[in-house]
Design brief:
heterodimer; A: 378 residues; mainly beta; 8-stranded antiparallel beta sheet; 5-stranded antiparallel beta sheet; 29 strands; 46% strand; globular; B: alpha+beta; 3-stranded antiparallel beta sheet; 3 helices
């Protein structure tokens, strides 16, 4: 005991030059709004799907040790939605009571961006889609009061959650149609196998108030529209396999299909869009598309070697960024000086300065193994 | 395709077996071209062919290679690298009764076959022999030909382990 007392005494009164005692139990926090160049890497954990995660990274940092700001879990090919009006992130995820077996429970987990910890959850029907992530599996409408989760069993439907009251409101069948494209107000649209788009208006309780269908405007087999649209000012720009673009205006009560135009123009070389996350948008409303040359039947998910940037108003390509390494997914930060993020074929995330097109760094050592989607922090 | 090869190579990590598969693929393709050009008479001393007594083998090639003809629209881990085979599930898994299909050309008889890519389910990812080919694959709003979906549906749970490639018939031309 005497020795211990001496030790404590020495530890409590350090001599000059020694490290003083430090408090335990300190836990970091993050700002409620993330800096413009912080990014969220959505790791689908394809090799161990129950351990998916979202990693918050400072894409400006050249220091691998300190650029990781934190992470949170997202189980079983989860889907993510980052709120714009609140400091929250929503994850649609699945758990089994015995890991990979047992009773299935699907939840919307509400993460607080400051602590990266769950601040609430809403149990939803165990039907949510598990598939390669896209931005249109989980969306919000009604000024982000209603969160919509896409279900595929393979019957298709949408689960409606009131995020403010933290309750599941109900399920809306969308037979023959898929995915969730948010519309203005309290409505959503879905792409249908018959080449139409279905739209659903919701009432205050999240139930279906009415629905409508467009005329047929695409072919689900021949030069189909990619579901991976770029959304700019409530218009969804759908690239086709062969490089057409079909805009659909979702700002009104029903979808309005616009005139199609071409990504390719006069460019030679067999260029086509392709990849996992093929499109992106920036704060200025430009559209980014991951492109590969020498396209062929089945190349629509091949890695791209360039990112083409379009002004959707003039329908002109305004920039093309050559990638150092081919990429399977792209993402764009949402600040005024945007970065292009690209998951390269080594499954590391490359960072490019959009203004110059220069490769800035590679975000290695983040702990992400399969960063499928790249979100600019909000 | 060379970029895709790199992504798959990275995904499969560099086991000696994988390296052997990748480095032999070009050779395999060369042999395959010879088979197609030379017809049945010159059919080949490839592993599957050699294992059969039938003088006119119905298939040829390495079922552990992503380039194997049945895998033209596969997306996932080959069950043949996970304790099962190209048309059976590994022990202790459960085969999904519903699935997506592809239409693949068998280079031996030059016929198109309907391939059912039934997933094997109930365990975590196999992690071996990841393949992605997308001939005839279509977006998820056309689900019967969409391989981005987890097809472990109608099973006791939805954990995805690996994918088979089962011939269910010839395609109507």
């Amino acid at each position: 005991m005497k020795k211990l007392a001496l030790f404590v005494l020495l530890a409590a009164s350090p001599a000059f030059g020694q490290i003083g005692p430090e408090p335990t139990g300190q836990i970091g926090t993050l700002p409620a709004s993330y800096p413009g160049h912080w990014v969220l890497l959505q790791d689908g954990a394809f090799f161990h799907m129950n351990n998916g995660k979202i990693i918050v990274v400072d894409a400006d940092s050249d220091d691998p040790a300190t650029r990781v700001k934190g992470m949170f879990d997202a189980s079983f090919i989860a889907q993510m939605y980052q709120a714009r009006t609140k400091s929250e992130i929503y994850i649609a995820e699945t758990f089994y009571s015995r890991g990979t077996r047992g009773e299935r429970t699907d939840v919307i987990t509400i993460y607080d961006k400051v602590n990266l910890s769950p601040s609430g959850e809403v149990v939803i029907p165990p039907k949510r889609i598990s598939g390669m992530p896209t931005y249109y599996h989980l969306q919000a409408v009604d000024n982000e009061r209603l969160l919509l989760a896409y279900n595929f069993t393979p019957a298709t439907s949408v689960s409606v959650v009131d995020i403010d009251s933290r309750e599941f409101l109900g399920e809306i069948p969308i037979p023959g149609c898929s995915l969730i494209y948010p519309m203005a107000g309290r409505a959503f649209a879905s792409l249908c196998t018959d080449g139409t788009m279905m739209s659903v208006q919701l009432d205050e309780n999240g139930a279906q108030a009415s629905s409508a269908r467009t005329d047929v405007f695409f072919d689900a087999n021949n030069d189909p529209l990619m579901e991976k649209a770029a959304m700019i000012d409530s218009v969804a720009y759908f690239p086709s396999f062969l490089g057409r673009v079909v805009p659909v205006d979702l700002s009104g009560d029903e979808p309005v299909v616009g005139d199609e135009w071409s990504l390719i123009g006069d460019e030679e070389g067999g260029w086509r869009p392709g990849g996992l996350a093929v499109t992106g948008t920036d704060a200025a409303g430009r559209m980014y598309v991951l492109m590969h040359p020498e396209g062929y039947e089945g190349s629509h998910k091949d890695p791209g070697v360039e990112v083409w940037v379009f002004d959707v108003g003039s329908r002109q390509r305004v920039d093309r960024i050559a990638l150092d390494l081919p990429a399977i997914s792209i993402g764009i930060t949402q600040d005024d000086d945007p970065l292009l993020l690209a998951t390269n074929i080594n499954l590391e995330v490359d960072v490019y300065d959009v203004a110059s097109g220069a490769h800035q760094r590679t975000l290695s050592g983040t702990g992400a193994q399969t960063p499928f989607l790249l979100h600019g922090g909000l | 395709m060379k970029w895709l090869d790199k992504w798959l190579d990275r995904s499969a990590e560099s086991t000696a077996r994988t390296i052997a598969q990748r480095t032999s693929r070009r050779g395999f393709l060369g042999k395959l071209a010879g088979v197609v050009a030379g017809g049945a008479a010159s059919v080949p001393l490839l592993p599957v062919a050699r294992a059969q007594d039938n003088p006119a083998p119905q298939e040829a090639g390495d079922p552990a290679s992503c380039e194997y003809w049945r895998y033209c629209a596969i997306d996932g881990f080959l069950c043949g690298c996970c304790g099962g085979s190209m048309n059976s599930c590994p022990p202790g898994t459960e085969m999904s009764p519903i699935t997506w299909i592809g239409t693949c050309t068998n280079p031996v008889d030059n016929r198109n076959y309907i391939i059912s890519y039934n997933d094997c389910c109930g365990k975590s990812s196999c992690g071996n022999c990841l393949c992605q080919r997308n001939e005839g694959d279509r977006p998820v709003y056309n689900p019967r030909v969409a391989n981005d979906l987890n097809w472990c549906l109608g099973t006791s749970n939805n954990s995805y382990h690996c994918s088979t490639a089962i011939v269910i018939g010839t395609a109507l031309d």
